Input
Amino acid sequence: MSRMWTALMLEAADAEAKKMSRQRMLLQRLKNRERLLQKIPEWQFRAHYRLNKEEFHSLCDELRHNTSLKGSKTTSLELKVLTALSFYAMGSYQKGVANEVHMNQKSVSRCIREVTKALNEITNKWIQFSQTSTQRTKIKQGFYTKFNFPGVIGAIDCTHVAIVRPAADVPCFYYRKGFHFLNVQIVCDSDLRITNVNAKFGGASHNSHIWASSRLQSHMEALQLSGDSGYPQRIYLMTPILNAEPGSRGENYTRVHVKARNCIERAFG
Output
């Protein structure tokens, strides 16, 4: 009996020792990852994650204090955010990201899901269309200073974002290039800050249909304020004049319009 208890105690001690060893190994791996982050040059960090280190740490603080995102014993909050940023920025498959951060694909998928959920929790704080006269005046001044185009409070266009084939309404998401997409409507200011996003429609939807169905159109009609030939011309939505007569006021208007509208193309980029 005594020998049996001794064997059980030795087994329990061995299991505890193995558990402690695994924890030490995981903590050491976590520290190594954090050291690696510190060693990455600023230019390389920005090129890979699309944020500089100061912006990255600011984002982590925002997510830590204002969302449900938390770190764990084996994966810090910072590593979760880096993993998601790498996937967002590079557009690579999750297995590639997994190799880069030394995680298995399942862990990478979990990190991306958790960080995406957390970012959605603070979206309305950071993506806001101008609501006050003061805000609109500031944006108008930006467009006028940079492009000599008066009265503009945003550049608008749609961009196709590839998605996995959805389970339902497949034709709505199928695009002529042979893939499945969302057609995402985005508005930005002259500094490329995104002020409005509509990601409800599939790739088969035309830009003008998305615009007509958006709350932003109703908002603009209410304001009657001041695009792209894919949209209808309105008092508040200025589009280029196609095939304008060389040397005419229409050509001059379109030239200035194209320069100002290029903001949204750069924002997409």
Remarks:
- Confidence is low (pLDDT under 50) at residues 225-231.
- The first strand starts at residue 155 and ends at 162.
- DSSP finds twelve helices and three strands in the chain.
